[in-house]
Design goal:
about 180 residues, mainly alpha, 8 helices, about 60% helix, elongated, Mutator-like transposase domain-containing protein, coiled coil, Mutator_transp_dom
Length: about 180
């Protein structure tokens, strides 16, 4: 997730900088999402709840509290839940909720559903996009899928055989030579 956020930040320089998406905040989000996944690897529902807890937690503001998925009680990692358990009412949020929401949506959606899902996020945010954006998103997703399939194929037996044949051709050795080892060969 951190890698995708950093790449997105490079492609869209306006979202980075002071009081915006910083490297420190990207690292923090990566850690929290990673912990949510690793700590709940036995339960998809708990994992989902923990991921949404992080998402809503960092999207929370003083005017719009979003801590309903955060663990409750004084031992919670959520400072707002800790303050609530202790009866405190003087808790202030110190991060930009809009930026966090956008960054989290972008990373999660892109990772799970590809670039076309960003168009849905933009729609939710009230940003209208043209047909060029749709074409770009479809092309990016097709490229991403093709690259992933190629990488997966490279790890398969067929990929190894194909690389071996390519190496033989590069060395000008006829591919009819059987290089497999075993009985009666």
């Amino acid at each position: 997730m951190g890698t995708r956020l950093r790449e997105y930040k490079k492609k869209n320089p306006g979202i980075g900088g002071k009081n915006k998406l910083t490297a420190k905040f990207v690292d923090k989000l990566s850690i929290y999402y990673g912990l949510a996944i690793r700590r709940n690897s036995n339960s998809m529902d708990d994992m989902k709840k923990a991921i949404w807890a992080t998402f809503y937690h960092y999207g929370s503001t003083d005017s719009k509290l979003e801590h309903h998925f955060c663990p409750e009680g004084p031992e919670s990692w959520c400072k707002w839940q800790q303050a609530k358990a202790k009866g405190g009412r003087n808790f202030c949020h110190d991060y930009s909720a809009k930026l966090v929401n956008i960054a989290a949506f972008l990373v999660i959606c892109t990772f799970k559903n590809g670039v076309t899902s960003l168009l849905e996020v933009m729609n939710v945010l009230g940003i209208s996009v043209g047909s060029g954006a749709h074409l770009y998103a479809v092309q990016e997703d097709e490229t991403r899928i093709a690259k992933a399939e190629l990488q997966a194929q490279e790890q398969t037996k067929e990929g190894r055989i194909r690389r071996q044949q390519q190496n033989l051709e590069d060395m000008n050795i006829p591919s009819t030579v059987d290089l497999h080892y075993g009985p009666n060969r």
